[in-house]
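quick one: manganese (II) ion bound model?
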Amino acid sequence: MVIVMKPEATEEQLKEVISKIEELGYKPHVIYGATRNVIGAVGDERGKFILQSLEVMDGVEAVIPILKPYKLASKEVKKDKTIIDVKGVSIGGNEVIVIAGPCAVEDEEQIIKTATTVKSYGAHILRGGAYKPRTSPYSFQGLGEEGLKMLKKASEFANMPVVTEVINPEHVDLVCEYVDILQIGTRNSQNFELLKRVGQASKPVILKRGMSMTIKEWLMSAEYILSEGNMNVILCERGIRTFEAATRNTLDLAAVAVLKEETHLPVIVDPSHATGYAKYVGPMSCAAVAAGADGIMIEVHPQPEKAFSDGPQSLNFKSFAEIITKIRQFAQVAGRT
Ligand code: PEP
Ligand code: MN
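yep, here:
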């Protein structure tokens, strides 16, 4: 249910409504708006009509059921776009945010060199995996905490925030010590215990789309994070499984348009995992901007041919620079920066 407060409702009245919601066994999520505040009350769907009794409380204008199965992610509860600030970088605003870096952190020199180079070309956020969820147990699994240390060093050196994937609920606190954004990968996008755990973390979360996930299922996964209190979720379209074998996955750009209708959360696109080939990353990055994405996430490696993972889809520095120039032009046409 959404409890819509009157524009003139006092802080005291808001507090009283919040305690009443808790008393009834529901979890309140206050969304502060420019003219009025609303409270999303989430919990057991079966008894939710008991919340209707809040309508008579002072300061309450209306109590409205949220019809979508994803409550806090839906625009029913929050009409304004969510803009997430990460160390001065605004995700979800007018600027197209570029996240770039290698698939995996391999050594200090690799990550620092990549960070400073992508930053010099205009990237806002560094990426790099320290824990890699690989299809094969024999593939490189990542450097773990050593990798996290290198990421932190590179992020400080290049003065840019950093995102890394977390694959285990037990690692969440540790990972939060080193990075600015947590990533949930496609293979863990319905690992509900992990989603709940990152929902309790203080860092924003990039939630990748599961490779066989519908948009609705994806939003329900986002709901797991939001309902634990972490409202800073960024959705990342990274391609889905289809019959098409010419690309690693099929980039579903329509999902960006659908999500813009359905949710207030920022949406970014990862053309690297979506296509699997460096040569398709440029065109799909521009297409993502045209589709209205809030940002793009691109794999970049100093020597893609030597990368421990995802080399074929990784850009070298030269092609990254060229692609950034193109993206700038597309952004401008779309009225973005
Ligand atoms: C990655 O970002 O390197 C990654 C493993 O992505 P995905 O979960 O989308 O495959
Ligand atoms: Mn990768």
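The chain has two domains: 2-64, 84-333.
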